[in-house]
From TrEMBL:
InterPro entries: Apaf_helical, LRR_dom_sf, LRR_R13L1-DRL21, NB-ARC, P-loop_NTPase, WH-like_DNA-bd_sf, WHD_DRP
SUPFAM superfamilies for this protein: L domain-like (SSF52058), P-loop containing nucleoside triphosphate hydrolases (SSF52540), RNI-like (SSF52047)
Keyword Repeat included in the entry's annotation: yes
Record-given protein name: NB-ARC domain-containing protein
Domain NB-ARC: 289-464
Region (Disordered): 1-44, 149-168
GO terms of biological process kind: defense response
Start and end residues of each Disease resistance protein winged helix domain: 548-614
Entry-linked Gene3D superfamilies: Helical domain of apoptotic protease-activating factors, P-loop containing nucleotide triphosphate hydrolases, Ribonuclease Inhibitor, Winged helix-like DNA-binding domain superfamily/Winged helix DNA-binding domain
Keyword field: Leucine-rich repeat, Plant defense, Repeat
Length: 1558
């Protein structure tokens, strides 16, 4: 059989069997030879093909010679090193083999290979090619590491040889013979010239290199490198043999239409499936009837009167369910009918807590991660949607069994007090509709033929009305029959067809064999597969790699491109790799494999069916572990991802529970993988420590790994990856935190990753993250993705010449942070902030930084302030800005705190003609600003603190900011008409002498684009008319200080385009009226908040005019002490939900009048309104006129909706004694009341909390704060829903009863000096936080609750006994000021404690020591989880305690209350704390020296000494090698001097009395 037949897929070729005997490469070659022929001859019947093979051979021989010459360039860095070790020929051969791989694979590219044997062997050949690259990477890794070792070597003789000293091992491969030219053997079957017998593994040895010696040294550590040698030989031999066989099979294959179209469109330019509510479709075809039907069901009068109802859209994948839901969601009638519209993408994993958090995020912009219980989440959501009609879209639901989860989600929407709430669900499963008991359903079918044809022509020709040629129309409609009206299939296949309008090509699509694989009429996978096969091969590889990511993943282009580059999926000789990869991504978007999540966003998503396609086409070399079901890994697997989202559902409080079945499956599957071949390992989602330990123990063969991404739940990488330095080929490392973590500690071993190109530690790590000291050894690092503050911490960054991001560089006097470090960093892109420029020593230093060579920078920020913007003083004596001239193409420039005149390149010799933004701040000696003619493209000018500038000229600006220019008198405009069209932001503040501004334009309000106006000055803008200003449609944010009419006027745009207005007056300006014209504009119909503050003389407010504010939700008045003196009708719009009055003169019946018209009132706050003397509740309309003078009442219509009530009076107010209820049911009438705060007003609450039946509280109450109650006993009866209780400053209180508070989670009692009894605490089964402060009469406290996580007992001087039995969940404990405490029960229960602070409570320490001694004898432990200990008793340093503190990381001891010395026993105990990372000793005034064995604290990273003035020297044995930071405050001069003298040698970050030495 000829090879052409094999390629076409016919004939009797035998399939290759799995590799035997360990899967050797030789075995693979033998199988390939048997299946495809031995390659020695060409069948006579394929003479033409035989000629092609001969021609290709000749071409390949020429290529081989070129390859040998090109190899010289490729090995230019390896060659000097390899020649010294005798492996120059071997390195050259390995590079040559790489080129052969490329030639063969290039021959395969573009061919549709259907022969199973050939396709499989090509995949194996591609894997061999990748391994060849790994081997080169390993050799180069050793070279780089040896060079780094040589840099620190001081022996000049050794440096001349460019070799390490005799103590270092060097890779030497002895080979008896090597050829330098690659030849393809002839038909006689001879081997390649570089595959000779002499190059066998037997002839190749690895010897340690010893300087000036030819005698091999013995070193068993070289065994791994010996493995490299053997693998190089095996790979080279197999490469030659396999290449010949594959070439003979590939050459006869004719290029079909697939190859033609792919080659034609190799890099076409362009014009997961987490869904969103944003429409990304330009037009939706064929769904008008379905859309109208759904909208009618959602918005009809009948539906508006119904309880919560559910509508379900059911349809197969890709039919357009999400698109239809999107259209409905964004319909104007729907948005008008539903004040609250929420969109949540659910997918296969239904997590009710996560869904509620997403809903809250949409409503408030806050995920409420601080809420740790599902009930609290439900209550919060219920509060947010209270009295609002809600439409909730749940897209892509699969859950059809767990009813309790569904009920948890529905509860807040069923109890929000409004009819007509709707849920619109999309799903593929008909069972979902039955499960959720939907009120109606829409069965979505494929589009009808006419609509489908319009969609198809739009996709293919860009115009739905395009006149398609008859032949194409006939074929196209036949293709559409196969697509069954599926829009996703039409869009995908349309991307292919639009690239070639040849009927023959369309016919090949119609007759493609893929259609035979369809499983049913609705299976669109064949159409998607055809689209995939017509992708260019480089795009196929990039796309298929995405199968590793979870479904519904959000793809960020830069991150994905960096991963592709790390895997060598992107290559280029003359164009930056990131640009080429970006074009690849752009092309995949154009082909329809990605789509934007939001129209104007940066993230992209992938339809789940497209993701299924990616998994299918990558099934040979990718493997995903995502559940407990066993799945065999493919034998060619190179890329692995672990996805835990389904198996590890994090609890509402963030904890992750152990999943033993998944751990076992993960361990089994991971252990069976051929780790030596792995190139990718990704971990997504929450995990428990068992998974981390499995990775740590099992992940050992990591030489080939190029991409490693970990979503961690721990702060120490060593807890997951123990051998990070073994990842010698690692290119991409991403470490993220599953939740917001304080900091990541990167190990020093990362610095040995010679090939690392990307280090990404951005997600959820704080700016206190610790970087390794030797990070500058990462010479190939291209991207450091982290917080800006961390960029400034890289010492010696000048060695990282490949770096493309350096967001912040902080100049210091130390050479490692000298500005000269920037000299060679010419690959920097985007932006850089260079701060602390005061520490530049000379103009020569500044010039040597070569800022002008950074031609890829678009933004430059030069600052003489510190890294955090602080004013650090100006010590520089030289004008260096002249020597920091940027390149001419700079776009944005900011100069800050420069104390010398402007440089020539910004005054008389301006060359920055591309500049669009100029910020100058605190440049106090600058007198002039560049004029528009010198900066023709300038669109943003921001000038701040420029005291010598007197005049500026502005051109066609979009943003103008003038702040504190005290001498500025004139602001001239070059072209007023242009400015009125272009200006978008205008801010003028504290320019008190400005008298000339473009006032004619401003007064006429012709700024058609202005959307933000801030003016904080008077004279120049004194004629501004606010009502006229509000007529400007574009203006969304206004902030004016325009005395005397108002001190400040603010109008700002909030979330969901909601407007907020604040009007602030002044005590000194007697403003009497606020005119009605201020509120009569259409734009204010969206006003949701109005605040009027500090108008003590105001007597008139246009109450009737406020009725125009139909969307007003919050109304607030502060210090309007005369407004309510007039006898007028007070009325607010009925939409108001929150009402606040502070220090106002509300009298008589005015407040009651306001409340009568507010049926939806949720929040009422009355503070310091002393005219109010009583609180009638629930009177009817005809009763309120009979109220006594000065009283007010909460009307009956407010009772169902009010959720928060606060009444506060100033201390000593005469109203306090008179304030009382006028209704016998008191607070019980408030059926929705959740929060009550009563301050300095004891009477209203006394009867309620004292337990009298006549004053029952509302059952819904969840938060109660009471102060200054005069009762001696508080009985919190009928408060079963109470979650938070605070009792403050109740001077007469002696007892509290909490028997009914079964839902209580947070209890705080403070300042109740006579309190002696807290009863019913054991009934609080959900209590998590307990705080008792200042209860001087309290003698004992029993708080044995297993739910407690935080306990604070402070300033209770007579407390003798504290019982915390069963407090196994306690994490934080604070005991302070309990001097008489003699008994502490339950200390052994504190098995989960993480943070402990003890002060002036010696009894606690005695109890701890006693309990520790007991458990030591019992061989059991507690306190093993303690991480932070802050204590004032040195006796804690004893053997029984310290031997148990195995997790302690931070220890603070204050010696002020003790003798203040360390005994030998103390020192021995201290050295047991091997996990300690931060030690602080305070006020040890008698301590003369630190422990001699102090250096034994091998994990210590930070050491702080405060007020230890008798210590004069460092420890005898020195400091721990791990120490990074040292802070001295109030210590001796001798110790300070010693540390300052030695900190550089130790590479310490040192602080002495606040001064930094780094």
């Amino acid at each position: 059989m000829d090879t052409a037949t094999l390629v076409a897929g016919g004939g009797g070729g035998r399939e290759l069997q799995p590799r035997a005997s360990g899967g050797s490469i030789e075995g693979e070659v033998e199988q390939l030879s048997t299946a495809l022929g031995d390659g020695k001859s060409v069948p006579t019947e394929a003479e033409g093909n035989g000629i092609k093979i001969v021609q290709l051979r000749r071409l390949l021989e020429e290529e081989g010679r070129d390859v040998a010459s090109r190899a010289d360039a490729l090995v230019s860095e390896l060659q000097p090193w390899s020649s010294g070790g005798g492996i120059e020929g071997k390195v050259r051969q390995l590079h040559t083999a790489q080129e052969v791989f490329k030639l063969v694979l290039a021959e395969a590219e573009g061919k549709q290979i259907e022969n199973v044997e050939l396709a499989r062997s090509l995949k194996k050949f591609r894997q061999m090619a990748s391994r060849a690259g790994d081997l080169v990477g390993e050799l180069e890794h050793y070279r780089i590491q040896e060079e780094l070792e040589q840099e620190g070597h001081e022996d000049d003789d050794h440096e001349k040889d460019s070799r390490v000293d005799g103590s270092q091992s060097r890779l030497i491969l002895e080979n008896t013979e090597s050829a330098e030219v690659f030849q393809v053997g002839q038909d006689t079957g001879e081997d390649c010239a570089f595959c000779t017998e002499d190059s066998s593994s037997a002839a190749l040895q690895i010897l340690p290199y010893v300087a000036n010696s030819t005698v091999p040294a013995s070193n068993t550590s070289l065994e791994p490198r010996l493995g490299i040698s053997r693998e190089i030989n095996e790979l080279i031999q197999a490469c030659c043999k396999m290449a010949k066989i594959l070439l003979e099979a590939l050459v006869p294959a004719k290029l079909d239409d697939l190859s033609r179209i792919v080659q034609k469109n190799q890099s076409i330019g362009t014009n997961l499936r987490e869904t969103s509510s944003f429409l990304t479709e330009p037009k939706v075809y064929g769904r008008d009837e379905d859309r109208d039907r759904i909208i009618r069901k959602l918005t009809s009068d009948e539906s508006a009167g119904q309880d919560l109802s559910i509508l379900c859209i059911i349809g197969y994948g890709g039919v357009g369910k999400t698109t239809l839901a999107n259209v409905v969601f964004n319909d104007s009638a729907v948005s008008k009918h539903f004040p609250v519209r929420l969109w949540v993408y659910v997918s296969a994993h239904f997590d009710q807590a996560k869904i509620i958090r997403k809903m809250l995020e949409s409503l408030t912009g806050n995920k409420h991660e601080d809420i740790k219980s599902l009930k609290d989440l439900q209550r919060t959501l219920e509060s947010e949607v209270k009295s609002k009609r809600v439409l909730l879209i749940l897209d892509d639901i699969w859950e059809d069994s767990q009813k309790e989860k569904w009920d948890d989600l529905l509860t807040p929407l069923q109890s929000n007090g409004v009819k007509g709430n709707k849920i619109l669900v999309t799903t593929r499963k008909p069972s979902v509709e039955k499960f959720m008991r939907a009120n109606a359903k829409i069965n979505l079918e494929g589009l009808d033929p006419d609509d489908f044809w319009h969609l198809f022509t739009e996709c293919v020709f860009g115009n739905e009305n395009y006149k398609v040629p008859p032949k194409l129309q006939k074929i196209g409609k036949e293709i559409l029959v196969k697509l069954k009206g599926n829009p996703l299939a039409a869009k995908s296949l349309g991307k292919v067809l639009r690239r070639d309008h040849n009927p023959d090509f369309w016919a090949t699509i119609l007759d493609n064999n893929e259609w035979k694989h369809r499983t049913d009429d609705y299976d669109i996978m064949p159409a998607l597969m055809i689209s995939y096969k017509y992708l260019p091969e480089h795009l196929q590889q990039c796309f298929s790699y995405c199968s590793l990511f979870p479904k519904y993943h959000r793809y960020e282009k830069k991150r994905l491109v960096n991963i592709w580059i790390a895997q060598d999926l992107v290559s280029s000789t003359d164009v930056r790799l990131e640009e080429v990869g970006g074009q690849f991504f752009h092309d995949l978007v154009e082909w329809g494999f990605f789509q934007k999540e939001f129209e104007f966003g940066d993230l992209h998503i992938m339809h789940d069916l497209i993701h299924d396609l990616a998994q299918k086409v990558s099934s040979d070399d990718t493997y995903t572990i995502e559940n407990s079901e066993h799945k065999e890994a493919p034998w060619l697997v190179r890329h692995v991802s672990v996805i835990t989202a389904r198996e590890y559902t994090s609890q509402v409080d963030g904890t992750v529970l152990l999943n033993e079945p998944f751990v076992q499956e993960f361990a089994n599957s991971f252990g069976k993988l051929k780790q030596s071949k792995l190139s990718t390992f990704m971990l997504f989602g929450p995990l428990d420590l068992a998974i981390g330990n499995t990775i740590r123990q099992e992940f050992s063969e990591v030489n080939s790994v190029r991409v490693l991404t970990l979503e961690m739940a721990v702060f120490d990488l060593d807890l997951v990856i123990v051998n990070i330095s073994a990842f010698v080929n690692l290119r991409y490392l991403e470490l993220s935190c599953f939740y917001k973590g304080p900091r990541l500690e990167l190990p020093e071993a990362i610095c040995s990753l010679s090939h690392l190109q990307v280090l990404d530690i951005m997600k959820n790590w704080g700016d206190s993250t610790v970087l390794p000291r030797g990070m500058n050894k990462l010479g190939k690092l291209r991207h450091f993705i982290a917080r800006d503050e961390l960029h400034a911490k890289i010492a010696g960054v000048g060695k990282m010449v490949s770096l493309q991001e350096l967001k912040t560089f902080c100049v210091r006097k130390a050479s490692e942070f000298s500005i000269i470090q920037l000299k060679r960093l010419n690959q920097l892109r985007e932006s850089i902030r260079i701060c602390n420029l005061k520490d530049v020593g000379s103009q020569e230093e500044a010039a040597e930084a070569r800022i002008c060579d950074k031609v890829h920078l678009t933004t430059l920020h030069l600052s003489w302030s510190g890294v955090n913007g602080q004013n650090v003083g100006f010590s520089s004596n030289c004008s260096i800005l002249e020597d920091l001239q940027p390149h001419a193409g700079l776009v944005n420039l900011k100069i800050e705190a420069y104390r010398y005149p402007s440089p020539s390149w910004l005054s008389n010799n301006i060359h920055l003609t591309s500049l669009r933004s100029l910020h100058l701040d605190n440049c106090k000696k600058w007198c002039t600003i560049p004029e528009p003619k010198h900066l023709p493209l300038l669109r943003e000018l921001d000038l701040r603190h420029m005291p010598r500038v007197r005049e500026i000229v502005i051109g066609r600006l979009e943003i103008l900011v003038l702040y504190y220019l005290p001498c500025l008198r004139r602001c001239a405009v070059l072209n007023e008409e242009q400015l009125s069209e272009s200006l978008q932001v205008l801010k003028v503040e504290n320019c008190d002498r400005l008298v000339e501004f473009p006032l004619p334009v401003l007064q006429d309000f012709q700024f058609t684009s202005l959307h933000r106006l801030v003016v904080h000055m008077y004279f120049c803008f004194r004629h501004t008319n606010i009502p006229q200003l509000l007529r400007m449609d574009s203006l969304k944010h206004v902030d004016l200080w325009l005395q005397p009419s108002c001190q400040e006027f603010q109008l700002r745009l909030g979330p969901s385009n909601a407007l907020r207005m604040q009007i602030i007056g002044s005590h000194s300006q007697p403003v009497l009226r606020i005119e009605e014209s201020l509120f009569g504009f259409d734009k204010l119909k969206n006003l949701v908040e109005l605040e009027i503050t500090t108008y003590p003389h105001l007597t008139y407010l246009p109450w009737e005019g406020l009725q125009h504010l139909t969307s007003l939700k919050r109304f607030k008045m502060i210090v309007c002490s005369k407004l309510f003196s007039n006898n007028v009708e007070f009325i607010l719009p009925p939409s108001v939900e929150e009402l606040e009055f502070h220090s106002c003169n509300i009298t008589e019946q005015h407040l009651s009048q306001l409340l009568l018209n507010l049926p939806s009132l949720k929040k009422l706050v009355i503070t310091n309104c002393e005219e109010v003397t009583s609180l009638p509740v629930g009177l009817f309309t005809d009763e309120h006129s009979q109220m006594p003078e000065g009283s007010w009442h909460i009307a009956s219509n407010c009772l169902p909706s009010l959720e928060r009530l606060q009444i506060t009076f100033p201390e000593g107010s005469s109203v306090i004694a008179a304030m009382h209820f006028s209704n016998r049911k008191g607070f019980g009438r408030f059926v929705s009341l959740r929060e009550v705060i009563i301050e300095n007003c004891p009477t209203p609450l006394s009867t309620m909390v004292s337990g009298r039946a006549s004053k029952v509280p509302p059952p819904s109450l969840v938060k109660l704060i009471v102060t200054d109650i005069e009762d001696s006993c508080l009985q919190f009866s009928q408060l079963s829903c109470l979650v938070e209780l605070q009792v403050l400053r109740c001077s007469s209180l002696t007892s509290v009863n909490l028997d009914s508070c079964t839902a209580l989670q947070d209890l705080k009692i403070e300042g109740c000096k006579l309190l002696s009894s807290i009863e019913g605490l054991q009934s609080c089964k959900t209590l998590r936080h307990l705080s008792i402060h200042g209860s001087e009469a309290l003698l004992s406290l029993g708080a044995s609750l297993s739910t407690l996580t935080t306990v604070s007992i402070e300033k209770n001087p007579n407390l003798a006994c504290l019982d915390l039995h069963t407090c196994t969940a306690l994490q934080k404990l604070r005991i302070e000021g309990c001097a008489t405490m003699a008994s502490f029960e339950g200390i052994k229960s504190l098995v989960g404690l993480k943070e402990l602070r003890v002060e002036n409570s010696p009894g606690f320490i005695r109890s701890w020591i006693s309990a520790a001694a007991e458990v030591e004898s019992e061989d059991s432990y507690f306190m093993g989880t303690l991480q932070v200990l802050d204590i004032d008793d040195i006796s804690v340093l004893c053997m029984p305690i310290c031997c148990q503190l195995t997790s302690l990381k931070t220890l603070t001891i204050d010696g002020a209350r003790t003798v203040g010395v360390l005994t030998d026993d103390h020192e021995k105990a201290l050295l047991l704390l091997t996990s300690l990372r931060h030690l602080e000793l305070n006020n040890f005034k008698h301590l003369r020296s630190l422990p001699a064995e102090f250096q034994s604290l091998a994990s210590l990273e930070r050491f702080t000494l405060v007020n230890c003035e008798r210590i004069t020297s460092l420890p005898v044995g020195g400091l721990p090698a791990s120490l990074k930071d040292m802070d001295l405050k109030g210590c001796s001069k001798e110790l300070n001097a010693s540390c300052i003298e030695n900190y550089q040698a130790r590479r310490l970050h040192l602080w002495v009395d606040g001064t930094a030495y780094e």
